[in-house]
Amino acid sequence: MIVKKDARCLLLKTAQRLLGHQPTATEDTRWRLLQAATEVFAEVGYHAATTREICRRAEVNLASIHYYYGDKAELYREVFRLPFLDECNVFATLDITEMSLEQALHAFYQWFFPPASEEDPMLQLFMRLHAREEAEPSGVLGDAMAQAFRPNHEKMQSLLCREFNLKKPDAEVDRLTFAVLGLATVYFHSRTALTFFAPHLIDGQKSREAMVVRLVEYAVAIIEGERTRRATAGRVKK
């Protein structure tokens, strides 16, 4: 029960940060629905979750989900978009003109492995939710996750274009973008496998910090490899 209370408090604080003010009654209802839905979906999965139980936990009437989100499927998709709205996703809003390559990469990878994640009840709920979706696909997410991740993807493309002095991404930057992003996303989407095969990689703050440092090093090595390839290709053309 304490975890639930802490998690709800965290989510409402997130709402206040995003709104820039104390949530109104309407906004408060929406965020309480999101919190309750996150809890229920993480506990029993999409198909077993009932709108009645979600509304009961949110302490709202049964018509609220239809009024605010349309149906259970859209509420589920909205829950999966939540991590991309949290202030910890600083990478998407970075001013890359003011940061080194290493600093920008560190901000991105730390989003996946925040130092205090063991003390973050909302993050724990999201991890459970993703693990359950992986094991029991709901079939309703569609491109919701891809659309939510788009700002991060485009920011990484911009960072790589800066590194190679390009005005827009070419095919090689597209390939490289997925390679650099994939270094972290594989851990996020395969959390169950990670926990099974090598839990020590993310067990504790020091392990997560080491993971971020290594991912930055790996990414820089890949980027430098592409820089060398481009330079070599340029000399051959001449």
Task: Describe the model.
This protein has 238 residues and is mainly alpha-helical. The chain has helices spanning 2-19, 25-44, 51-58, 64-69, 72-81, 101-112, 121-135, 144-163, 171-189, 191-197, 205-237. The chain folds into 2 domains: 2-82, Tetracycline Repressor, domain 2; 88-237, Tetracycline Repressor, domain 2 (Orthogonal Bundle). The longest helix is centred in the C-terminal third of the chain and has 33 residues, at 205-237.
What keyword list fits this structure?
2 domains; 11 helices; mainly alpha; Tetracycline Repressor, domain 2; single chain; disordered N terminus; 238 residues
Element layout with pairings:
Blueprint lengths: L1 H18 L5 H20 L6 H8 L5 H6 L2 H10 L19 H12 L8 H15 L8 H20 L7 H19 L1 H7 L7 H33 L1
Helix pairs in contact: 1-2, 2-3, 2-5, 2-7, 6-11, 8-9, 9-10, 9-11
Number of continuous helical runs: 11
> Low-confidence runs (pLDDT<50, min 5 residues)?
1-7
**Biggest sheet character:** none
CATH architecture classification of the largest domain: Orthogonal Bundle
Strand content: under 5%
Number of strands: 0
CATH topology description of the largest domain: Tetracycline Repressor, domain 2
Order of helices and strands: HHHHHHHHHHH
Compute the separation of the termini in Å. 69 Å
**Overall 3D form:** elongated
Helix content: over 70%
How many discrete domains?
2
What's the alpha carbon Rg, rounded to whole Å?
A: 20 Å
Name the structural class.
mainly alpha
